[in-house]
Write a structure and sequence with these properties.
Layout (H helix, E strand, L loop, with lengths): L4 E6 L2 E8 L3 E2 L2 E2 L2 E5 L10 H9 L3 E5 L18 H15 L4 E6 L3 H10 L4 E7 L11 H12 L6 H5 L4 H7 L1 H8 L6 H6 L4 H7 L12 H12 L3 H11 L4 H4 L10 E6 L20 E6 L5 H4 L1 H15 L1
Parallel strand pairs: 5-6, 5-7, 7-8, 8-9, 9-10
Antiparallel strand pairs: 1-2, 2-6, 3-4
Length: 321
């Protein structure tokens, strides 16, 4: 893996990142990708994309988001405002002399990725959403969402959020990291439908130290890296959920124009039982230029099917630049 660097994006706020500069081909500098990871991952999850696109001359910038690695990781959930994170990313781009980027988000990385395009369309060439589609600014009522999903699909799609929001979740997860990893990266994605999503199930799984066969698309070293991020402190990572539940972004976003005016690619996994492709069917109303690709994969699409993901993004990017 490339050597990580750090930069102070604001007073007392440092971001850790990996960066490969774009190379000039025929005097034309290729675009740079800004890769934003989700929960409970890190910039490590983009290793396949960085290797592939950097070899083709594209620039690749992958920060550890707030709560991860050596990036600023406050314990106050109210600091996890998306607008603030976008400002941090703009400061990082300015530091590296990058004018416009293609923003790529996975999982929770989709929140800052999509807002980046809303707040700074002039700094973006396009947007790639992986696993999670675009949701326009809106207030969240978690309890209502749980009732609606139970009625619609037979289980609470976001039931695990209740556990993540509890005061003891971080300690339980740190103390039972292997059990959590087994469920997060199970070789049987259907287990998310039975043991992760429904209310109370993930607590039951982790507290009882349950085990599952881990997915084969990750190496032993990948799992070690993943584990290191979990045992060094879960609370800052869980603050992404806590801040969303308390609608920390609403004051910033209530007057935002929700329309995305940049070319957008959404890649969804047909074996993702939490971020269901059909749950994002309405995103096309808010995106002027949207391409949707479905891959037979679980939630961790870019790790399970890196070649397919890279090929899809590569074809799409050539069409928009």
């Amino acid at each position: 893996m490339l050597e990580a660097q750090s930069y102070e994006v604001a007073i007392g706020i440092t971001y850790e990142y990996i960066y490969v500069k774009s190379s000039n081909v025929d005097q034309i500098s290729k675009a740079t990708f800004l890769f934003l990871h989700g929960f409970p991952s890190s910039f490590h999850c983009w290793r396949h994309q960085i290797e592939y696109f950097s070899k083709q001359g594209y620039g690749c910038l992958a920060p550890n988001m707030m709560g991860y690695g050596k990036t600023y990781s406050p314990l106050d959930k109210d600091e996890y405002k998306t607008k603030t994170m976008v400002e941090h990313l703009i400061a990082l781009l300015d530091h590296l002399g990058l004018d416009k980027v293609v923003v790529v988000g996975h999982d929770w990385g989709v929140r800052p990725a999509s807002r980046f395009v809303l707040y700074y369309p002039e700094r973006t060439l396009g947007l790639v959403l992986i696993s999670v589609g675009y949701r326009p600014p809106a207030k969240l009522d978690l309890d209502q969402a749980l009732v609606i999903s139970k009625k619609a699909i037979g289980y609470e799609m976001l039931g695990y959020w209740k556990f993540f929001d509890s005061d003891d979740a971080a300690t339980i997860m740190e103390n039972n990291a292997d059990s959590f990893i087994d469920l997060a990266f199970t070789s049987e994605p259907i287990q998310w439908k039975t043991d992760l999503a429904p209310l109370g199930k993930i607590r039951e799984w982790i507290e009882n130290g349950k085990k599952a066969n881990q997915a084969s698309y990750m190496t032993e070293d990948d799992y070690k890296t993943f584990r290191q991020y979990i045992v060094v402190g879960m609370q800052p990572k869980l603050n992404w959920y806590k801040s969303a539940i308390t609608n920390v972004d609403w004051n910033d976003e209530m007057s935002l124009d929700p329309t995305i005016k940049r070319p957008t690619l959404y890649i969804g996994g047909t074996k993702d039982y939490i971020c269901l492709i059909q749950a994002f069917a309405t995103q096309k109303q808010y995106i002027t230029d949207l391409k949707v690709i479905e891959l037979e994969a679980c939630h961790w699409i870019m790790e399970e099917k890196p070649d397919d993901v890279n090929q899809v993004i590569n074809e799409w990017i050539k069409g928009i630049l």
